[in-house]
């Protein structure tokens, strides 16, 4: 049976979603547009990277083939294909829960694009229950931009910054020491209670440090307050069967701790890769290591930074042989994504896209798995590999 290693490259979509138009995303293609930009030099940045994308390992595992960039030069080194999303949203929890076998077939609550964006009664309840002097922001925004704009006023007034995006999310930014990190966490827990009736997917604490607009930086102490998935996922099935589920990065938060035996966090993709390697060494037969690599989305997709995204893909690719060297006979590894976030697309939000499905391991015979109709096929394949009972939303491709 071996172990299963499930890897989400956060936002590394490959375009082609049948329903992209309904999201205003027809033509969005995170990987394809970075690949194309790199060919023309549009992904060059002095001191960072230059030239065509160098992804020898992901290419060998079939990323380019999965994405429809036919590549006959290199024989496929793994099973490769693509998956479409059936969940209604293009947000992180929907993508991850569907990967884990549970699509989100209900509508999340969203805050309108108006200013203010939050209902006055909601803000009043949160202010009353948390003893803050009021709030700043109260609109849709990019997190880094709104901290640069309102961070100094927030520090001076003691009012935290509330903002949202096209995700089902209430984000609260406050200074880590002037406001206080624990106080920010307590405030988010209060806010979590009050947004429950509005069906909001996540409240996110976004602490920052620095002393003025030019030096404010968000820290790794971000914390997500998520609702749990609507029904048991493959993670819950694994834990119920006595297996260990080791969550790397924000996986534990995304599943609100449900079906998670152990959480290992890291600051940035490279630290997360180290944590993942450690977990692969520690996992026993039948266990699941589930990792999320957040930088692609948070640092480069939302910031619409093409060279940064390209460099992050190359850095991840360069470390893949370290993972492959730690795989044992019978292990199954899958690389996929939870949605797109095309850095060439207008705005700063996610993009509705298909995702790659790259399946590899010492005993995995190379070849195509075609287009899967739901990300849930990934979780069901993990279940089949680990000998867990099947769920009701997907079909194993093993
Ligand atoms: O601009 P920042 O704060 O990074 O916000 C992004 O991060 C949120 C959570 O991933 C998303 O909803 C998106 O809006
Ligand atoms: Mn995501
Ligand atoms: Mn995101």
From TrEMBL:
Domain of life: Bacteria
GO MF, one example: phosphopentomutase activity
Keyword Phosphoprotein belongs to the record: no
Reactions it catalyzes: 2-deoxy-alpha-D-ribose 1-phosphate = 2-deoxy-D-ribose 5-phosphate; alpha-D-ribose 1-phosphate = D-ribose 5-phosphate
UniProt keyword list: Cytoplasm, Isomerase, Manganese, Metal-binding
Assigned EC number: 5.4.2.7
Pfam families in alphabetical order: Metalloenzyme
Annotated Mn(2+) 1 binding sites: 10, 338-339
CC cofactor note: Binds 2 manganese ions.
Cofactor requirement: Mn(2+)
GO cellular component, as recorded: cytosol
Family matches, as PANTHER family: PHOSPHOPENTOMUTASE
HAMAP family reported for this sequence: Phosphopentomut
Name of the molecule in the record: Phosphopentomutase
Provenance organism: Aurantimonas endophytica
